[in-house]
UniProtKB/TrEMBL annotation:
Name used for this protein in its record: Alpha/beta hydrolase
Domain AB hydrolase-1: 11-278
Pfam name, any one: Abhydrolase_6
Organism from which the protein derives: Streptomyces corchorusii (Streptomyces chibaensis)
Molecular function as annotated in GO: hydrolase activity
Keywords: Hydrolase
Gene3D superfamilies (UniProt xref): alpha/beta hydrolase
Record keyword Hydrolase present: yes
Transmembrane parts of this sequence: none
Taxonomic classification: Bacteria, Bacillati, Actinomycetota, Actinomycetes, Kitasatosporales
């Protein structure tokens, strides 16, 4: 890392699919206790301003599997611009660390490619790295991802919906448990009920399907760290390691620093203080 103190650093957090800026709150509090500033981004179509399918909050959730998403027109460019807007706010700090989780790796990587001068380090928290394969779905379909859970969670046809839709408010105990086991298996069910209630149902289809092209002279020059989640059931360690290896082969002059956290895909929920400490080694 660097010799700069934590007070010289601002962390810019980019959430993953179906989440929002609020997922980082406990991690941000832990960082603040260590003297570090932070900002969290809401990507378009996420957070408390996310539009919801018409029947989502109604009894029996009519049309949830068929109603076209209001986010169908959201692009990867839109999402990268939201990250860039927040990065520009952080430049009064001497050092800016961009932290991306899961599907947020796409928009974060594109933002760093377009404005590497705004980023001093990128941290991928079990996040998509596009240097080896430009689309997140290329890794999700890899043999290394064969053990991933959650394939049964998607509703309807993503192409028709314009989004990858899940149902965080499902009344089916088996569905709820699969959602927990996929993303949050190391927190108890009562806590997970609160976490799932804050999720939004739609991920714009552009996020996993749009190619993100990064180059050695721009994205590739930014120091980068990968925080592996050792018992990740949504994006297994084998896929995380594949992305790291392929990125390092593509950009051999600036390889990843790799560290490992215990537990699930969602350490911001299960162990936020440990995550904060890992960001400030």
């Amino acid at each position: 890392m660097t010799d700069l103190s934590s007070t010289d650093t601002v962390f810019v957090f980019v959430h993953g699919a179906w989440h929002g800026s609020g997922q980082w709150a406990a991690t941000q509090r832990a960082l603040a206790a260590l003297g570090a500033a932070s900002i969290a981004v809401d990507l378009p179509g996420h957070g408390f301003d996310a539009p919801l399918p018409g029947g989502y909050l109604r009894p029996s959730q009519p049309g949830l599997s068929t109603e076209r998403s209001a986010l169908a027109t959201v692009t990867m460019d839109d999402s990268a611009e939201a990250v860039l807007e927040t990065l520009r706010q952080g430049r009064h700090h001497r050092r800016v660390v961009l932290v991306a989780h899961s599907a947020g790796g796409g928009p974060a990587s594109l933002a760093a490619e377009r404005a590497p001068e705004l980023v001093d380090e990128i941290v991928y928290l079990s996040a998509f790295v596009p240097a080896g394969r430009p689309r997140f779905m290329d890794y999700l379909g890899s043999p290394e991802n064969a053990t991933a859970r959650g394939q049964s969670l998607a509703l309807g046809d993503p192409g028709e919906l314009g989004a990858v839709r899940i149902n965080p408010l499902s009344q089916d105990p088996a569905y709820v448990e699969e959602l927990r086991q996929t993303y949050y298996h190391d927190i108890p069910l009562d806590r997970f009920d609160r976490w799932r209630s804050a999720l939004s149902p739609d991920l714009p289809l552009a996020i996993p399907t749009t190619p993100v092209i990064v180059t050695p002279g721009r994205w590739g020059r930014v120091p980068r760290t990968f925080l592996r989640c050792a018992d990740d059931r949504a994006l297994p360690a084998a896929v995380q390691d594949l992305m790291i290896a392929e990125a390092d082969r593509a950009m051999p002059g600036n390889p990843f620093t790799v560290r490992t956290l215990p537990g699930s895909h969602s350490p911001f929920a299960a162990r936020p203080r440990e995550l904060a400490a890992a960001l400030l080694p």
